[in-house]
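Appendix B, Record 12. Input sequence as logged:
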Amino acid sequence: EETLLRASRALDFEVLVLGLRARVWVELRSNADDWEAPAGARTLDGVFHLVARAPNDDLADWLKLLRVLFQSDYWFYFRLLQAGIGDLDTETEAFALRWRRGRLQDFGFPDIEDAKRVYSYLRDEQLARLPDTAPAAEAASSLERPRTAWLPAQLESEVQRYALFRAIARLDPDERAPLQGALLSLANRVALADALPLGEYQTLRDALEKAAQTASRGLEHLARERGLRLEAVLRQVSLERLFQVGHNLERRRRS
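Logged structural output:
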C-alpha cells in the first residue's frame, strides 16, 4: 500500500485522471429523495459511486488504489474523483502533455515537431551549400543542453569509424566542447523523432550512433563537394544541417 501511495503521488495528477476516466464512470450521490445508485456501482464512502465502463471489468486495481488514497490521503482521493466527474478529457490531456514536454526539455529533448526537423527535405542544390555564417558555438547557450555524459564507453572505440569523430578530434579543445554538447542534442532529437524508448540506456547509444553516422555522411559529402578538410566544414556547418544532408543523401540512394 505504501508503494501504491508513493506511485500515485509521483505520477502527474492528469495521468491518473485520464486513467480513471478511461475505466470508470463516477457519479456523485445526490441529495434528492428518489436518487438511487447506478446498477453495479461500488462505493468506498457512500458519496462517490463507481461503475466500470467495460462490462467485464471488476475495477479491482482501481478500487485498491482508491481505498489506499481514501485511508491515507483523503484530499487526493477527493480531488481525483471530482476530476473524474467534471474534468474534460481534452483539457486534461493538454495539461498532461505540457508537463511531459517540460520534463523532456529539462533533459534536452525538444518538442516532437521540432525534433522531426532533422528529417527535413533538401533540394538537390541545397545538398552542397555552405551557410553564409559559421554556426555559433552550437550547444554552448542552448536551452536544450542534455544533462548527460559525452559518449557511452561502447562508442569511444569507434571514434575512427566516423568522419564526424575524426573531424572533432582535429579541432582545438575549446572548439570541441560545444560540438560534443551539440551531438548529444542531435541524438536526443533523433531519439524523439524515431519514437525510441527514452528511458532506456540503449536508446542513447543507438541515437548517438545514428546521429554520428548520418552526420558523417553529410560531412564527407560537403567536404568532397567543396574541396575542404573535414574539420573546416565542421567549423562552418551545424551538426543538424550535416544530419539533414546525410539523411537526404541516404534517401536518394535508396529511391
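The radius of gyration is 26 Å.
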